[in-house]
Design a protein that fits this description.
Length: 445
Amino acid sequence: MAASKDAAADKPRPAEAANGPATPTPRAHAKNEGIAVLERLLGKESAPVIPLPERNKIEPEKKPGPLQGWLKKLRWRHAIIGISFVGLVAVPATLASLYMAFLAADQYHSTTSFAVRSIEGGMSSDILGMFTQASGGSTVSDSYILMDYIQSERMAADADRRFKLEDVYATRGLDYFYGIGSDLPIEDKLAYWRDMVSVNFDHASGIMQVDVKAFDPRQAREIAQFIVNQSDNLVNSLSLSARNDVLRAAQDEVLAGEARLAKARAALRDYRDKSQEISPEEGAKLAVQLIGSLEQQLTQLNADLATAKSQMSEDTPRIRVLKTRIESLEQQLAVERQRLGTGEKKAVANDPDAPDVAGRIAEFEELETEREFAERAYTAALSSLEKARIEANNRQRYLALFIEPTLSEMAQYPARLLNALLATLGLLFAWGIGVMSYYNIRDRA
């Protein structure tokens, strides 16, 4: 009876049978769950249930295939990213590789090495020491000056006048990237010159290496030789300028001392012309001797006068003669003493404007002192000039060339594989940054 009720309950209704399979009833769903719980408790797998013809079945949902799932997930932004990769990375990298492989012209290089040397100090016994000494002193600053000069506008202009850069570096075939244009200003020529000429300086050894690139190996060597010649001229001019700076002050001192000495000698010559004597000191010695002789004669006459007065009267001719001679000697003695000095009171002389011996000696000594000082200063200036000349000669700079400009036999530039790889990596890097920036902004938004 109960089984018949269950079968009647499980029988589909006529309306449901006509419309298709109906949804499972809550009772049947609870029954299935109970059976599953009981099977788990018993630890046994339930026997397969054979569905009855009249039992309702649940159709499983159909899963889409892998191709349909990928197409469903594909969006417009993914398509744009793929197109951007092709347009911004793949195509430009391919074109760059083809250009480097088939269109880029061969470039040859010429290398030369030299150093700025100074003869100051002792000479080294080996070749390496001769060049490593260039890093001492002020030759380092001279080397940096030379580096700036090689890559300066003046050097580019001189090279353009000498070689006509627009002809030397004209476009070869379809290589418009590495060739130089026509009718360019000096600024553009300077930028191209710095690309084709590289300078490396080793501070430890003082050696400078210059690399020159050109489309023809002989032209590259000629340009390198031109750079060496111009650098040698610059170093010589710097050395000459430094030498002149050292000597200029000493030469000025010599000229000043020479002018002072000439002035002192002229003043002394004028004095001797006016005084008509070589040295007033010698004249003073003669005047002293004369005064001494006059005083001796005067003393003798005074003694004779005293003797005569004791034997004769005052009016006798002998006494009058002695008195006259004594007066003459006294007058002469006064004149001679006046020539030596004026004393406390100026004596009257035949030539009141004539200087006395003491005045002439003072004037002469002043002139002579000035002359001696001028001579000593002039001698010291000459000694300083000679010392400065020796020092200037020891500080001379010169360009020591030990590697002549080379002649290349095989093209070294451009680095085709490396340039193509760098272009590809650069494009890929830029594209990756763009994509990451887009997703970063999208996630933040």
